[in-house]
Specification:
single chain; alpha+beta; elongated
Length: 702
């Protein structure tokens, strides 16, 4: 028999659900009182919605975090906080700002703090000893334990809504393998980061290289000792059998300014004790402030994963490369239902969004969405950003499905990042996904004007070059004989100038230009579908055009690891849980594509050394970037620097063409992807020259 239950659904509203086995009670009047003192609350109205549901209105709010019951004839019905936790009133009453949560550890004591306003009891289990926690204001539970507890195992036993759960602290910063227990960490006893963060004058100077920790070094050909681990990415001097650089050395040689790491916080679906038996990108978050154990050489040692993660970050910093973390603040990992999460066990109904029918919102497609607009959800994620900035000295964050986060949270994250001495890179997916969050509040690209300092992945740029992502055989400029030629002025100028198109973003400082990332087919695999009838040599040229345009366009370029050597995932479109064979970087392929890698290096070098490739304002772009007259679909534009002038031409056809340089004089050929026919021809005198089939050309006139 299902027991009756009552829920606080608003400040003065209780909804009672009575099953058919309870005697008819409509002729009697209930009492509501706090269990410990029996003092009744005044009921002002009672409505019978149907034979099983009653609504009771009160003259005052019921206490939260206390046992409250409804007495009806001889039936005692518990009253639990229900929809009230999703009201503005609840947020105002119970949100706290200037307090640190988690286990704050020193040599003399550890302070444990948990936010659980609806709980009636919280017990700390510390190394198998039980300690009752004390409830203080705003629903904060706290306990100070004297002594040195560094390395101790802890968890909370939380009683809420009549259920008792053992939970891991969401603010835990250390963990045993497979997220089995939280661990107390005194960070003064972890590795100290000595290498300074790389300095960068402006984030417009960035070149981002997206990489997965495991993919980077898992291939035996990488020559790395700690393959697939944090430590693998800090090894120097690693080479293939033929002596080609790999890993960190290779990334440094490319000339990129930042690596963007797919999620490195604790995630699900990989057995940390047997990581080779499973694979995952990491978009199944569990603990947000703990490094992932499968990337550690000793996942059961919480200090090992912390220190090894720090060693990796410091190694990048020593090579003057910033580290951007991919963070998943849009959903929590669940296998079947939301009750699996620590968040739901601690404050049921609060952390996630619901639709009008009271079903979990699911714009993520993962079964839930974090309600980032609620004050304590927002605080958790801002605290997480703060922690990675302070303790791990990271240089930026990439927000997965950022369009499902709210504007105010992103503004506050930006405000926190502004406190750092160096500029912090913030970028995200600004897609407009279905959600119960109003569109006016979404951190999506349509609201970019409200999000100064936040950059958006430019899917317009991507689709113009290779065709619509969601139409598998659609073609774009590089693989469609110059299709969308008329859209090239918009994308090379940063997708922000009204004279070329309706702007994608209001300012050039907000576009991330890319044609490939970890999601969907690699560009090589896409070309293998759209241009399957073309020989490999032709598809390679198309690929080079797309990568080249990405690197010379205004805005920040984003390169997927291995893109520079035609990375393939053997046709797998969504490889989030595919094998290492599908996902790992193929370092033998790196040996075979020396010329194309050098082509990419030269373009990055050009970008890093001439600021006209990375202009910082619309006004400057309008002054210095001009579209050249060409025989369509050959496309050209010029960049006017203070001391030099550049002319860039792209031929998307399989025929030679004639081009007119912007002015007469001596033009030095700086970059070409025609490695066969341009071996000696490096200087053009005059105004006219030819461009070869599928050629990418950069000239400079001093």
């Amino acid at each position: 028999m299902v027991k009756p239950v009552a829920w606080m659904d608003d400040i003065k509203l209780v909804t009672v659900y009575i099953n058919s086995f309870i005697p008819k009670l409509d002729n009697s009047f209930p009492l509501i009182f706090q269990k410990k003192n029996k003092i009744p609350f005044q009921i002002t109205q009672m409505t019978n919605l149907n034979e099983h549901v009653y609504q009771i209105y009160l003259s005052e709010a019921l206490p939260i975090g206390e046992e409250v019951v409804l007495q009806w004839v001889d039936t005692e019905i518990p009253i639990y906080p229900g929809k009230i936790v999703r009201t503005d009133w609840f947020d105002q009453q119970f949100s706290v700002n200037n307090i640190q949560f988690g286990a704050i550890c020193s040599e003399d004591e550890t302070i444990f703090r948990l936010w659980a306003p609806t709980a009636t009891s919280v017990i700390l289990r510390l190394n198998d000893q039980l300690y009752e926690m004390i409830r203080v204001e705003k629903g904060v539970w706290t306990k100070n334990i004297a002594g040195d507890w560094h390395g101790a195992i802890y968890e909370y036993i939380v009683t809420v809504n009549g259920n008792t759960h053992v939970v891991i602290d969401p603010y835990a910063k250390g963990s045993l393998a497979n997220t089995s227990k939280g661990v107390v960490i005194n960070f003064s006893r972890t590795m100290k980061l000595n290498a300074n963060r790389p300095k960068i004058a402006s984030l417009q100077d960035a070149v981002i290289y997206e990489i997965h920790v495991r993919d980077a070094t898992k291939d035996p050909e990488s020559g790395v000792i700690n393959r697939g681990k944090f430590l693998g990415l800090q090894e120097i001097g690693t080479k293939t059998e033929k002596g080609f650089s790999t890993g960190l050395d290779y990334i440094k040689e490319l000339g990129v300014t930042h690596v963007e790491l797919l999620p490195i916080n604790d995630f699900a679906r990989v057995d940390e004790l047997k990581p080779d038996t499973q694979y995952n990108w990491g978009y199944d978050p569990l603990l947000y402030q703990v490094p992932e154990g499968s990337y550690s050489t000793n996942p059961n040692d919480p200090l090992s994963r912390i220190n090894e993660c720090k060693k990796m970050i410091e190694a990048f910093h020593r090579e003057n490369i910033g580290v951007v973390l991919d963070v998943v603040f849009n959903h929590a990992f669940i296998e079947e239902n939301i009750e699996e999460t620590n968040f739901e066990k601690i404050v049921p109904g609060y952390y996630f969004r619901y639709d009008e029918q009271e079903n979990l919102a699911n714009g993520t497609g993962c079964g839930n969405e974090f309600a980032t607009e609620r004050k304590m959800v927002r605080k958790f994620f801002i605290d997480t950003i703060d922690f990675w900035l302070k303790e791990y000295q990271v240089d930026g964050f990439r927000f997965d499905l950022m369009g499902l986060m709210d504007l105010e949270t992103m503004k506050q994250i930006y405000k926190r990042c502004q406190l750092e001495e160096i500029p912090i890179m913030l970028l995200g997916e600004g897609w407009n996904l279905p959600s119960s969050l109003p569109e006016s509040e979404k951190a999506m690209v349509a609201n970019a004007s409200c999000l100064e300092g936040i950059r958006f992945f430019n899917d317009r740029f991507r689709d113009v070059l290779k065709g619509n992502l969601f139409s598998l055989e659609d073609r774009g400029f590089v693989n469609g004989q110059g299709r969308f030629f008329e859209k090239l002025p918009d994308i090379v100028s940063g997708s922000c100038l009204e004279k070329y198109s309706s702007p994608f973003v209001p300012d050039v400082t907000q576009t991330i230009n890319y044609v490939e990332c970890h999601d969907n087919h690699t560009l090589w695999d896409r070309l293998s579908i759209t241009n399957s009838n073309e020989p490999e040599s032709v598809r390679k040229k198309m690929h080079q055009l797309a990568t080249g345009i990405t690197l010379v366009s205004q805005g920040v370029p984003f390169i997927h690891a291995g893109q520079e050597w035609f990375r393939t995932k053997k046709g797998v479109e969504n490889s989030y849980s595919s094998s290492d064979e599908i996902n790992q970087l193929d370092w033998k392929k790196r040996e075979q594509e020396f010329d194309t890698i050098e082509f990419v290096k030269k373009l990055i070098h050009l970008r890093n050394n001439y600021d006209v490739f990375r202009m910082r304002s619309k006004k400057e772009i309008e002054k210095r970037l001009h579209i050249l007259k060409t025989n369509r679909p050959i496309f050209g534009f010029t960049l006017l620097g203070d001391k030099e002038e550049f002319a860039i031409y792209i031929n998307p056809t399989k025929a030679c063409g004639k081009i007119w340089l912007p002015s007469s004089g001596q033009w030095k050929m700086m970059v070409t992807n025609d490695f066969v026919n341009r071996v000696t021809e490096r200087l053009i005198i005059g105004e006219y020259t030819n461009i070869n089939p599928l050629e990418f050309l950069v000239f400079m006139k001093s």
